[in-house]
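Let us practice reading a record.
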Amino acid sequence: MNREPTRMDAETALRPGADRTGGMRNAGSPTPAMFPPPESLRPTLVGRDFVVSAGHPIVAQVMAEVMARGGTAVDAGVAGGLLSNVVQVDMCNLGGVAPTLIRPAGDTETWVIDGVGPWGREVTLDAFLARHEGTMPLGSPAGVVPAAFDAWCTALARFGTWRLADVLAPAIDYARNGFPLDRGTATALELLGNGFSAYESSRAVYWPAGRPPRPGEVLRQSDLARTLARLAACDTGDREAGIARARTLFYEGEIAEELIAFHRATGGWLTRDDLAAYESPVQRAPRVAFRGWEVATPGTVGQGPVLLQALGILEGLPLERHARGSADHLHLVAEALKQGFAERERAYADPAFAATTLEALLAPGHLAALRDAILPEAALPGAAEAPAPGQGRFDTTYVAAADAAGNVFSSMPSDTIDGAPIVPGLGFFVSPRGVQSRLDPDHPACLGPGKRPRLTPAPAIATNAATGEALALGCPGGDVIVQSMLQSFVDMVCFGMTPQQAVEAPRVATFSHPGSFHPHPAFPKRVAVEGRIAPDVREALAERGHVIHDWPDWEFDAGAVSIAGTRVMHAGGAPVLVAAADPRRIAYAAGR
């Protein structure tokens, strides 16, 4: 009797020594079961010369074009970051923040450019509370020194090879000539209008027709294009000198003058002296060991050390004994993250003002004590319940690049357009990242003169000296950023997933800690769980004391992890360039 081929037929045909004379028609007529189903919705990209992953398809494409024209991963990353400020206006801004990690080819160190500016020297907590009646307003009053452009200049001058005008060219093009809005960005501009519609200068840019733009309509940003062109025009003569002239124009020259005049007129605290004094330091990135890897992030000026501390806790726990996605596995992940977030609230701050050093936070004995507090069958209590979330929506994007020479770039530009008004004539705003500072004088991240707020953006680079692997990874999503990054990294290292499988795998997120944005809401024991996680796993987590919050199968707020770097694809193999992009948002990868 005739029958259709089965999966068993296909497996038999693929065994060593099996008859393969029929090619794809082996064992009969066309056999769909000959090959396994897709391992992921998208493939893990594999490259020979370079790979990139970014929060927007246009950004990924332009980054790939930069490297196709001979640029390095650093050149591509800086170009991608600047372009993100144009095409992802709902996620980041030229006047925002851009914490950045770079692993140069041939270097054994990962370097961090913090990319976050401080409060002005004039502001004090008492003065701020008196002026703003004890609360944290959005807009210019929450402004800190715009740090993103300095971060791009520093990265390019110290680690890049291209001229500033060349990396600015795509951003100028897309700002001047515009780009059609995808559905997600058009929706974001409609939603964000609830905030930026209060600012006439912002409405004129993002709702030019007096209404939210529709998908497919072209967004042009003429003032921003002129500002970027002014910066590019500084790039004459020596490469480094051209970068320095552009930086001077931005922080000390006419752009600084225009920016501060508007900022002060709309209630801001910054002065021209605050801008002129700013410079992003370049430092060795802190790191922690996990399963033969070293993972590096920025320091306690951001929440990157939550990722490091949680990995340090998990290093001593038997994750691999549990099935991926089981209640045992997810419980340990959630509890390790809760410990990291508790540490964040206890100790993280601008290192110049912090009472606890990062070395103490990452000390093996301290991590062991945090690990020992985790109970295998019960959830830790978490923080006390705090106020409900405010009305603002804050988000982030990410760019990652790696090249065949060994350069790896990882950066997380941020600040959204509902947080502050666009400066007329300049096309960008002053970073409102001060909203992540606390108004409690006893909190380590309390607002203070010359003090940087504690950020949520936290790019990472993971390296394995034994195998030669190096991976840039990052994610938007506020307090979920480091949670999604940790789960994707653990899925690769502990559970053997490919990069694309890891970014697509269902995730959880804890909200037991106070949120990073004013008024810092907390939901004790809450764990958000994506719908693809089995009901019995949810029940088992609830039995341990977790308060389950249901997410859909693919949750936007679970972030969108991007990965680019090198990975060993089979036992004994050499590292190969790989990239992955999370389908929860419009992140995209490219390579050659």
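A brief commentary: The mean pLDDT is 94.
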